[in-house]
Amino acid sequence: MIDKIELTPASLTGEIKKTGSADSYQSFGELLKNYIKEVDAQQKIADETINKFIAGEVPDVHQVMIALEKAELSLQLTIQIKNKLVEAYQEIMRMQV
Description:
There is one protein chain. The longest helix has 34 residues, at 61-94. The protein is an all-alpha fold. 69% of the residues lie in helices and 0% in strands. Helix 2 (28-55) runs antiparallel to helix 3. The chain has one domain (9-94). The mean pLDDT is 83.
């Protein structure tokens, strides 16, 4: 079965999410760290799926390709987010105070 990638506009724009109690919120750093962990998990799932396919445990090549595409898309999105963050940092550094 195909699982959806859990990316929402709110998670990509850095919208603050509640983490449990009413007074605590997730910082941008925590949000970024959690997203990177999700990307890493996608990469590990893709690796495991490839290994299972090689061992003959996964008979359907489509499952392998879907896992690989999920991992690649999440990695490409992470790279684009990094590029935008670097670009924003450089723009801030060019500002005159």
